[in-house]
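Protocol step 4 of 6: structure prediction from sequence.
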Amino acid sequence: MKYFWFFFIANAIIIGYLIGIFLSLKNNLQSEIERKAICLNAQRECLNITDECKKFNDFLYKQ
């Protein structure tokens, strides 16, 4: 019975450590996904601007 508390506390520390690692990985993954979403939105905006410029250029040449 005297070792019960030792193992109980050791298991609690290990479980807490694993939960901390899991939460850290989850936050890193979430921020990476957000970064990629921002990058994709920027690329989409750039393509939209390029497309608008091309349309405007075509319009000017047709005049």
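Step 5 (inspection) to follow. Residues 2 and 42 are 61 Å apart (CA to CA).
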